[in-house]
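Field reference: sequence -> structure
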Amino acid sequence: MNVPEAWLAIAGIAALGYAIGSLSPGYIVGRVYRGVDLRETGSGSTGATNAMRALGPGAASAVAILDIAKGALAVQVAGAIAGGGAPQAAAALGAVAGHCWPIGLRGRGGRGMTPAVGATLLLVPEVAPIALAAFTGGIALTRIVSVGSLAAVTFTMVGYLALAALGVLAFDGAQFPFLAGTTAIVFARHAPNIRRLAEGREPRLGSRSVAP
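Structure field:
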């Protein structure tokens, strides 16, 4: 396979990942469980945090598990079709993008964290403890989910570079672009949250309302 064909194959795998990521458990659970369109309530996100506020912990747990699973599924499908390395990283990044900007929901999806978790667990399991510590630490200190999410993606990428520098893992030209791309997407999707954080209006755990 020559270089143009290789890039075309990677693009196709990324598109497949996008299609998997575009499947929206949050939208489906909201509609089936309470007839609620999560895009029209709270923060407007179809992710687990908005589902928690609008639908309760049971529905939110289902949304989170299914969103994590679709990130992992994208990696597994890519591996089965094209092998490991760049194809899996491309599918994973595509799944995160599809979750955030699903074509079937007019580009109004989630914030990207949960499918990123599922993909990261398979692609770079070494950094999973770092992500978990950053996420739980951020929430423990602030009781704000968005702080935990932003801390998780940031420290995951930094932690990966640190582990590679220490020789704990080998730097991979596919893994790092996935982590960096995921961090950029998650920060972009959290822009409203970041503005509310700066203004002191970001809701804490236990609050059922979100400032517009």
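Note: The first helix runs from residue 3 to 22.
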